[in-house]
Write a structure and sequence with these properties.
By secondary structure, the protein is α/β, with parallel strands linked by helices. It has helices at 2-12, 30-46, 57-61, 63-67, 122-126, 134-146, 172-182, 201-209, 226-232, 238-251, 270-283, 309-334, and strands at 20-25, 51-56, 74-75, 105-108, 110-111, 130-131, 151-155, 188-191, 216-222, 256-263, 285-292, 339-343, 348-350, 356-358, 368-371, 376-377, 380-381. 36% of the residues lie in helices and 19% in strands. Helix 7 (172-182) links the parallel strand 7 and strand 8. Helix 6 packs across helix 7 (172-182) and helix 7 (172-182) crosses helix 8 (201-209). The two termini are 30 Å apart. Keywords: 4Fe-4S, Iron, Iron-sulfur, Metal-binding, S-adenosyl-L-methionine, Transferase.
Length: 382
């Protein structure tokens, strides 16, 4: 989501009369906020004469802190981050299309969130859920595809809630089906993080049976322990998550599962951590994002009895090790199997399941090539 918005901002600032540096801040964890502040200080040292502006969730939730930094020339809230007037630049004559910096197009179709997970501060920075109409999404995709991109990634803060707020309510499956109908030559369509409980029947059918929808589902799972999920105010159970994975894999055995997992959520005891750890193997999670729990001021979880920080770090390390083992086993199973790989600009590429590949010298960035890996080098198929 941030990448999509950052590229749109980059396109707007191409018309800026002065050199401008933008920090698109994040607030998902306390560490993300600290990194955003560090980025501001570093970029000011590197660009002493530039106009330095801060936007994003951290700057929206706590604008005074960033405005008070001597390095910062201005703060722009999330609601205005794509408004040319706020950047003091003219509106572009046509919407910014595919970025020259990336080989796939990231298309934000939804923003905001209507849920109230007890650990999450993002709704305070993003607001209520808002969906881009199908016609607008198709127009945006047409611009990207005119530049020859081979893969489109649909993104959003709560992607699977797309469509509920439209004048004629719809579901994400309706949008995916409309894209596939409108662009029959689009080779690859990928989804960013999804909430499994929100996957509608049409979307599930497309994930299971449509070859142009990539066999890669990244779940906003958060925990494998039912009591923790309840205290997080998540809307799924461990069994429901595993049933979804089983359904996906039954129809597409090559389906790669990713997941966000939080280690050391308040009140998490040893048994709950064991459940969290065991879901890595149970679900076959090969793309894992592990976050040590980070209290966000103003959220209900921040008032719950905390797990000692050293234990949080230890549990996070155990989760990362479990994901690393599952991922290594998965990659070894892909050796000797041909796959269509999208070439990146740095000599690497990704298969439909988002497995990483090392490319032959001279591969054209943005091209789709078939590779049969013979081994693994530094965590990549080669």
């Amino acid at each position: 989501m941030n990448l999509s918005e950052s590229e749109a901002i980059r396109g707007l600032l191409a018309a800026a009369p002065t050199a401008t540096v933008v920090v698109n801040s994040c607030a998902v964890t306390a560490e993300a906020v600290r990194q955003s502040r560090r980025a501001v200080r570093r970029l000011r040292r590197d660009h002493p004469q530039a106009r330095l502006l801060v936007t994003g969730c951290a700057a929206t939730i706590d604008p005074a802190t960033f405005a008070a930094m001597e390095e910062v020339d201005g703060v722009i809230e999330n609601s205005a981050k794509l408004d040319p007037a706020r950047w003091q630049v003219p509106a572009p004559p046509v919407p910014v299309a595919a970025s020259e910096r990336h080989t796939r197009a990231f298309v934000a179709v939804q923003n905001g969130c209507d849920h109230a997970c007890t650990f999450c501060i993002i709704p305070a920075g993003r607001g209520a859920s808002r969906s881009a109409p199908i016609a607008q999404v198709l127009q945006t995709l047409a611009g990207h595809l005119a530049h020859g991109v081979a893969e489109v990634v649909l993104t959003g803060v709560d992607l699977t809630s797309w469509g509920a707020d439209l004048p004629e309510p719809a579901r994400l499956g309706d949008l995916v089906a409309a894209i596939l109908r409108a662009f029959p030559a689009l080779p690859r369509l990928r989804l960013s993080s999804v909430d499994g409980v929100e996957i509608d029947p049409l979307l599930l059918d497309l994930l299971c049976h449509e070859p142009r929808v990539m066999p890669h589902v990244h779940l906003s799972l958060q925990s494998g322990a039912d009591m923790v999920l309840k205290r997080m105010k998540r809307r799924h159970t461990r069994a429901q998550a595993l049933d979804l994975v089983d359904t996906l894999r039954r129809h597409r055995p090559d389906m790669a599962i990713g997941a966000d997992l939080i280690a050391g959520f308040p009140t998490e005891d040893a048994a709950m951590h064991a459940d969290n750890l065991s879901i890595v193997a149970a679900a076959g999670i090969v793309h894992g994002h592990v976050f040590p729990y980070s209290p966000r001021p103003g959220t209900p979880a921040a008032r719950m009895p905390p797990v000692p920080p050293p234990l949080v770090r230890e549990r996070a390390a155990q989760l990362r090790a479990a994901v690393a083992q599952t991922r290594a086993d998965w990659l070894h199973g892909l050796v000797g199997r041909p796959a269509q790989v999208l070439a990146e600009r740095d000599g690497t590429g990704h298969g439909p399941d988002f497995a990483p590949y090392r490319l032959p010298a001279g591969t054209v960035p943005g091209s789709l090539i078939t590779l049969t890996p013979q081994g693994i080098e530094e965590g990549m198929l080669a």
